[in-house]
Amino acid sequence: MDKVVATALGAVADVPDGATLAVGGFGLSGVPTALIDALYERGVSGLGVVSNNCGAMESGLAVLLAAGRIARVTGSYIGANKEFARQYLAGELEVEMIPQGTLAERLRAGGAGIPAFYTPAGVGTQVADGGLPWRYDGSGGVALASPPKEVREFDGTEYVLERGIRTDFALVRAAKGDRHGNLVFNKSARNFNPLAAMAGRITIAEVEELVEPGAIDPDAVHLPGVFVQRVVALTPEQAGAKRIEKRTVTAGGTGGV
Predict the structure, then answer these.
(1) Cα 108 from Cα 182, distance rounded (Å)
(2) Strands (E), the chain
(3) Sequential pLDDT tens for the chain (257 residues)
């Protein structure tokens, strides 16, 4: 089955207002920028986003965030995104913060058909006990707080019950993909992209290099095409547009990065 769609705009044409999205990327690595920009161009709003972070340096999800298109974020890192922090504290954005490993497993579990699982991460904190501010009222008070979760003991250790995550769509970026949707990710771009792809009911992948079926060694496939419904090939310019969030050089600026 050839899953290639000609354009990013065409690939996201049926994403409606209010949709939930699992979005890959780790920092600035592996962010599906072309698909995100296509959503921005379409004017889609009221989105519920599940992603490790919500964009940085005015790129990625930060484009949708700054335009007021995102209503809720489920993630594990706000980082240096000042607009994210501003909207959250102003009560304009609902935010569910999750331990990073728990977020990864919630996405994987959802994609694997596992409704919930127990983990020790967060036991004895507001993650398990409830009370984390999901939405502020704009005046410093909490308008909506997280509910308590079930805690159960196994072999003398307490664990908190976490739900698997499923979303309407998933947007991911791969270094290489074939027409059947088999994907290969590069280094840290592999951290969240395969998991986000698994969680989406309809998964759309932008690929830096599109190859024919059979060109990828089966042992090299990081995510099988069964999880991917649409593939978009990036232009060389799109594939090469990779930003560096923090550049560090030696004293004097003469050394390597």
Answers:
(1) 17
(2) 20-23, 47-50, 70-75, 94-97, 116-119, 133-136, 142-145, 151-154, 157-163, 167-174, 176-178, 183-184, 200-207, 210-211, 230-233
(3) 899 999 999 999 999 999 999 999 998 889 999 999 999 999 999 999 999 988 876 788 999 999 999 999 999 988 778 899 999 999 999 999 999 999 999 999 999 999 999 999 999 999 999 999 999 999 999 999 999 999 999 999 999 999 999 999 999 999 999 999 999 999 999 999 999 999 999 999 999 999 999 999 999 999 999 999 999 999 888 787 777 667 778 777 555 44
Count of CB atoms within 10 A of residue 53's CB?
Answer: 25
| CB within 8 Å of 173: residues ≥ 6 apart | 24, 25, 30, 31, 32, 33, 35, 189, 193, 205, 206, 207, 208
Both tokens of 127, joined, read: 């993650």
